[in-house]
Amino acid sequence: MTASILQLAAILELEPVAEGIEDAAQLARLVELGCTLGQGYHLHRPMTADDVQTLVRAQARRAAPAA
């Protein structure tokens, strides 16, 4: 069923988000099927909006090219 949903999303030019990813096997299968966005306890614990902003800023700093 997941493969069909991902195929339909591709046809409709939508970017699906897999929810409830709880273990490495689920994540591996989703990646194998071409799903590029997801959320769930396996990826990160629930966070407040402030914590998300802090995490995103930290990741952006790490990804920025060195000056």
What does this structure look like?
This protein is 51% helix and 0% strand. It has one domain (2-63). The protein has three helices and no strands. By secondary structure, the protein is mainly alpha-helical.
Descriptors:
3 helices; 67 residues; extended; single chain
Short précis:
The chain has 67 residues and is mostly helical.
Q: Spans of 5+ residues with little confidence (pLDDT < 50)?
A: none
| Head-to-tail CA distance between termini | 47 Å
What count of domains describes the coordinates?
A: 1
SSE string, helices as H and strands as E: HHH
The largest sheet, given as strand count, sense and whether it forms a barrel, is: none
β-sheet strand percentage? under 5%
In total, the number of strands is 0
Number of helices: 3
Determine Rg (CA atoms, Å).
Answer: 15 Å
Structural class assignment? mainly alpha
Mean pLDDT: 94
Percent of residues in helices comes to 40-55%
Question: Can you tell me the overall shape?
Answer: extended
Task: Please write out the topology.
Blueprint: H1 2-11, H2 24-32, H3 49-63
